[in-house]
Amino acid sequence: MGEAKWRQELRDIVGDRYLLEDPILLDSYGSDGYTLEKARPSAVVLPADREQLQAVVSQLFRERIPFLARGAGTSLSGGAIPLDGAVIVHLSRMHHIRNIDWYNRVAYCEPGVVNRKLSESLEPFGYYYAPDPSSQQSCTLGGNVAENSGGPHCLKFGVTLNHIKQLEVVWPNGDVELLGSLADFASPVDLKSLMVGSEGMLGIVSGIWARIVELPQSRSTTMVLFDDVYEASQAVSAIIAAGVIPAALELMDPLAIEAVERGVYRVGYPAGVAAVLLVEVDGPAPEVREEESLITRLLEKFSTREIRVASSAAERELWWANRKTAFGAMGLLAPRYYVQDGVIPRSQLPHALRQISEIGDHYGIRIANVFHAGDGNLHPLLLYDDRDEQMVQRVRQAGSEILRMCLALGGSITGEHGVGLEKMEELTWQMSPAVIQAQWALKNACDPEGLANPKKVLPIGPTCLAESPSDVTRV
Amino acid sequence: MIDESCVHCGLCLSSCPTYLVTGLETESPRGRVWLLSQHSSGVDIGHTGLKHLDDCLDCRACEEVCPAHIPVGHMVNQFRIASSTGVARSMVKPLRYFFATRRGRRRFKRLLNWSRYRVVKRTMSWFPGWIPPDALALASGLPQQTVETARPVMDPVKEGRVVMLFKGCVMDTVYGKTNQNAHDLLHIAGARVVKPELQTCCGALLYHSGDTEILRDLVLENLAAFEESGSEDVAVTAGGCSAFMKEYRHLFSPEDPIYDRVVRFAEAVKDVSDVLVQLGLPLLPSNGQRISMHDACHLAHAQGIRQSPRTLLRGAGYDLVEMPDSDRCCGAAGTYNLTHPEISRTLLGYKISDIPQDIDAVALGNPGCQLQIAAGLNKQGRRVPVRHTVDLLWDAYQGVNDGRG
């Protein structure tokens, strides 16, 4: 079948309007939240429902045309950048919550449902969906499943994996299968969990049964201001060491504070503050009160500027909005940022922060830190100007060095942003050839033709690693 | 104007009504900023690119959520003006005539009064070529009575804040009664209200259609009215007008001789609900009526006004029932419902299905939305009145003639 023919077939499935071929429209899909690279898809197709999605994938399989799924394109490791001229299957039209099953406490959602929208629709009934990536106001559940997304509140409640009960998957050959179960037990072979975090390499998720949980009876959010960021990171370890698992434990350094304070949700931190720590505890009211006072007593042993407990829901929401827009607000400090997603053991936080600052100085790159301190998931934001090619090089090197440091400290190259095409090389630092081989075996079992999200995550072989994929424009 | 601060984070996507309707990246704020940057770097974005830019409602929802507060709406508008493109250009002539001149406004009022007669309505629908079907559909949302009615003169307030009531064009021609109610409510709240005869359209509809030629004249006329009135506040009953006039200063360079006057005027401009909250109205006991609030884009997103109308309505004894996404655009967006009927109709559909069933009225603070939502409810045969916040307040306070006076 010729080029024109498969395009016509796709058009017949989704209708004229939802097959994009105009070069300017295709280029707008050139990258996701990771802007260091871009590539042009050979088409973008927007199915309206599961049936159309299945028909589209079957058609692409018949023609052996590579494809990848895209939600809101907020991902940060280039997972949604179309290599090999892959066709982008944009799931933005599949944004309906199909059913809320109160008995089994699951919400059956299409993959394009926006994370925050799900919680918003549950809140009037006293429920919510727990994983809350900072991009939750836009990112989709499908993308969350692909990346196994975390978020500030995953410290206590676990990441996406812990909140998915069942998935409907369109395999790369177009077959549809239901994985997992609505019952509260794990099946002997947990295929559903294989899909979570597979970064679109195994197939496309067309239906998600997400666990819904009751809103906590009460919540307490404490904001702690420090004059020294290292002191703040020691306080983090002390809180966990005392046996408290807060719902969230988030830290921002001076550069991050500067950005969020220029952004839309200004808190008004006093001048010269070197670190802002947000500690949130939730649960039954007496427990919350007890934990809150325990944390306050602990923090008093550290040298803090101020300890303030949120006095209203509005104040709490402002603090969180301020924190959650940190990435986007970097645009106010520099034209571009490159965010790393390394993980380290909590105890190494002060040490890691020092090293990041040294790496920044060495490469002449400004680095802001805003991170999930509770689980040691760092988010150093390397600020740069993409018009300065030399600087782009230095940013890449500095980013790479930060990841080496994370591994040296006993951590990981990614916590929640995924490997994508960004960290394929770094993956080989962390995983042995045998482990990578095992993952290839899984990939080949699900996608023998290699059509689903090509040239991502898994390096092809030791010799290929030094080169970047040929169809990617390095910007 | 190209903003360098977009880091492609995508947090704006879910706030954008046109992205919600179409699902396309280039119909999202991030996509539009990208299109503008391509255009400015010399890439031909083609007919499709231009169309997707022009589909922007200028509802400003994205500006409110953008972490780097990129003014996407402004950027698209400036693009429309600079490139003289956009389907809204076709609206410039009728807008200039009917709204920007006093004679035009008088004639428009007369036309509206005729169009209320069944005979005229039927005649209009016999000649579908004359009047676009979307305008006809919209006409079904017109209020039954627009003209001001004779009311007993209230005792003049001798001391208190001097407040100028800004009449506006659509408010003056279509919702004159609302202006009258606003006047009397301000009076009850203890203001010395002045309503200068010599004032005119704020220019927002023209500006959003890409026309800046006669803006200066309009601004000058309103400046003069304000200055002669000796007012401290300019109370405005249309969210679109107050949002635009608060931003008048962006239309002039600081070197312009009238710049300082413009800034003083812009700082005095307030939505009528903010003025009323500030002055204070007496609290009334519950009247048992259930009201759902639609937040007009140019009140909620452009001015951050959500609480004032709710505070006033609760204070007047109404029960508020919130609708989902109350601040999602209803698709009216100035003249957008006439120039982009398809997207507008879809958004209106969403809005109508979000309006709760068991309520006594929908409250809002902008004439464009009022016409649009009333027409949408009519079409579905739902008999829920769509009322300006001020009119609901007047229902409650009209007995309280001299609360403070």
From TrEMBL, chain A:
Swiss-Prot/TrEMBL keywords: FAD, Flavoprotein, Oxidoreductase
InterPro entries per record: FAD-bd_oxidored_4_C (IPR004113), FAD-bd_PCMH (IPR016166), FAD-bd_PCMH-like_sf (IPR036318), FAD-bd_PCMH_sub2 (IPR016169), FAD-linked_Oxase-like_C (IPR016164), FAD-linked_OxidoTrans_Type4 (IPR051914), Oxid_FAD_bind_N (IPR006094), Vanillyl_alc_oxidase_C-sub2 (IPR016171)
UniProt domain FAD-binding PCMH-type: residue ranges: 37-215
UniProt entry tagged with the keyword DNA repair: no
Cofactor(s) for this UniProt protein: FAD
GO molecular function: FAD binding; oxidoreductase activity
Pfam families: FAD-oxidase_C, FAD_binding_4
Highest taxon in the source lineage: Bacteria
Name listed for the protein in its UniProt record: FAD-binding oxidoreductase
Source organism of this protein record: Sulfobacillus benefaciens
From TrEMBL, chain B:
InterPro entries tied to this protein: 4Fe4S_Fe-S-bd (IPR017896), 4Fe4S_Fe_S_CS (IPR017900), Cys_rich_dom (IPR004017), Glc_ox_4Fe-4S (IPR012257), Helical_ferredxn (IPR009051)
GO terms, molecular function: 4 iron, 4 sulfur cluster binding; glycolate dehydrogenase activity; metal ion binding
Cofactor mode of binding and number, as noted: Binds 2 [4Fe-4S] clusters.
Catalytic activity: glycolate + A = glyoxylate + AH2; (R)-lactate + A = pyruvate + AH2
Keywords recorded for this protein, A-Z: 4Fe-4S, Electron transport, Iron, Iron-sulfur, Metal-binding, Repeat, Transport
Enzyme Commission identifier(s): 1.1.99.14
Alphabetized Pfam families for the sequence: CCG, Fer4_8
Residue span(s) of domain 4Fe-4S ferredoxin-type: 1-27, 46-78
Enzyme's top EC category: oxidoreductase
Cofactors, names only: [4Fe-4S] cluster
Role of this protein: Component of a complex that catalyzes the oxidation of glycolate to glyoxylate.
Alphabetized PANTHER family for the sequence: GLYCOLATE OXIDASE IRON-SULFUR SUBUNIT
Name the UniProt record assigns to this protein: Glycolate oxidase iron-sulfur subunit
Native species: Sulfobacillus benefaciens
